[in-house]
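Internal ticket #5521
Category: modeling
Description: The requester needs a full-assembly model to guide mutagenesis choices. All entity lines are attached below as received. Residue total reported by intake: 559.
Assigned to: D.W.
Attached entities:
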Amino acid sequence: MQEIVIKTEQLTKRFGDFTAVDGISFSVGAGEIFGFLGANGAGKTTAMRMLCGLSAPSSGAATIAGFDIYTGTEGIKRNIGYMSQKFSLYEDLTVLENIRLFGGIYGLRDRQIKDKSEELIGSLGMGREAKKLVGSLPLGWKQKLAFSVAILHTPRIVFLDEPTGGVDPVTRRQFWDLIYAAAASGITIFVTTHYMDEAEYCGRVSMMVDGVIKALDTPSQLKQQFAAGSMDEVFFELARNSKRKADQA
Amino acid sequence: MADLLIQQLRKTYNKGATIAVDDVSFSVEQGALFGLIGPDGAGKTSIFRMLTTLLLPDSGTASVRGMDIVHDYKAIRKEVGYMPGKFSLYQDLTVEENLNFFATVFNTSVAENYSLIKDIYVQIEPFKTRKAGKLSGGMKQKLALCCALIHRPTVLFLDEPTTGVDTVSRKEFWAMLQQLKAQGITILVSTPYMDEATLCERIALMQSGRIMAIDTPERLVSAYPDRMYAIKAKDMSALLQELRHCGSLASCYAFGEYHHITFNNDNEVSRTALVQYFTEQGYKDLELKEIAPGIEDCFIRLMNYAGNSH
């Protein structure tokens, strides 16, 4: 049986009298590509912050990469990678300097960092860019590099928060090749996106509305369940009755 | 005469080292809804900032309703509405205060032009005493649109109004744009979402500061030179890997539920051979069907073509 690396039970986060995440329960297996979708304000970011050990839940339980979400947050942080569209790398450091910095933060040894740097620059075909500032690279390259850096320490899980926003269609697909390769090596992918075609690339997808997971299944099962032709229609069907979208951030 | 006339417009940064807009030319007729479609770094925002007179071009010319973007900048600013990609209203003012402020700046009042924004404003009116910084993404977007419209502009510039917005809010936003267009406002809008291109009358597909193609979405799609097929099977990832090594294919890439492919020599024989090969390889539930290409397919083809010619 497939090993479970994320397991949540009735995980909840309240801010005052507002329940941002309302009792979500799901599990994700090792090497799975799990799409975490939802409308704006559905509670995705809050849920992700809890899963990364950055925000303590109000109630419920969860185990992430074998660590308890309340007591094992340091263990969680050592065993996950994270990248987002907004923050990924330091723009005023070179490609090599970024790899070195993050390698150090993730606790890799100098020798490992050196080997990883060569391997990564070779596989991304960035030999000529290695000593350039990250800020001078096109967005697509930055995002591919950021992903590679996020899995530099071969974490159990990598959290990707809208990694392909604003990226051109060709590079977006190259990015997904990297995701598939990482998943094939056993790293669990937990990804959010606004591109519904990318929802199709996920093994399973959850749809969050108003703090609750309204649906969770493979893309083909979801389409069948909602008698929809595309994931876009599934999303629309679930999210259009959201009460929260008018009101909450 | 066109409402927007852009000729050989060029903008560089870092003393010429970075070419943001590379001799771009296009025109937008009065009352048209024109889309600049492209990823981050395509040059869309630089074009917006030049046309709204916030940035000077290195070379080339452009006019807005006949007024030159360099010499007539004061007159242009009175005529146009601009919604930047980054939320730029006053976060510490309320919804109502922001709207009043922008109306006052343009020497008008909310009441005077209320009819134009009414349909949009009623959706945020319940929160009119809330500070703009405390609004959700969708609400901020609606308020920003109201503020851009409050002086009844003749030309509206919307820079990535739907970026980071979920698919439901995106649909609502495009419905609002169609209503504004119906009132005769000329709209220039940019988006990185290829599926939104079909909602514009004419589009320019942009990449790295250049326009790769410019036409109506329908004509761009029908000009796609090859017949396109969609293929799927049980193991999509492995299928794509193998498709990439198929000599008979001109292109193949993932596209949602299917992979899209085109053949070097498109005929019954090559298609049958492909299906036969993958069936023999043990791929289950193999399906191959002809499809109509979309804007994203056109974009990918143009990008690959540009990449190969360099």
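Resolution: model delivered.
Comment from assignee: The longest helix of chain B spans residues 167-182.
Ticket closed.
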